[in-house]
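Team,

Forwarding the record for the chain on the shared tracking sheet. I've put the sequence and predicted structure together so nobody has to dig through attachments.
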Amino acid sequence: MNKPRIVYILRHGPGKWVIVSIDRCEEDEKYQTNIDVDMHRANRTHVAFSFKVSLAEDFDYTVSIRIDICKYVDGGCKTYQTLADESAINFCEKYAKQNVDAALQMLDMNGFPLPVGDYAVDDYIFNVAELPENAVYGDFVGKGYLIKQGVEFSCVKVAANFVKNDDEDEED
């Protein structure tokens, strides 16, 4: 017996990313490390973040990362992609080295690892225009997890939209 197939048509092309929000994940009380983030738009192409983290685990090469991404379609947010790496530090250095280095400088740190402790960064400026210029159009939510010895110890949720260049930002 043949099972019916569901096919999604994904429109993609040139555009821009709009970061809508960054929040704690639901049920954040179950995580040992919570990240408090305040975001505001610095200008049309830049977003400013201030964040506080109380690391309950050393952030070293044994910490892995998983980012579960869903895309809003009819019927809700459906699994779209999962990104993962056995080393969150290697992941950061591969995909966000300049951004991570800038944040570490704001902490007066020369690099990794980060020991257990409290950290705060005020008004970190992120250039949204540095994100990929071609992608699938739509509304996305990504939940990023830090994992040590198989246990998730931190989670943050990011909502973002990829829109055609001629679309106006809702907040402008």
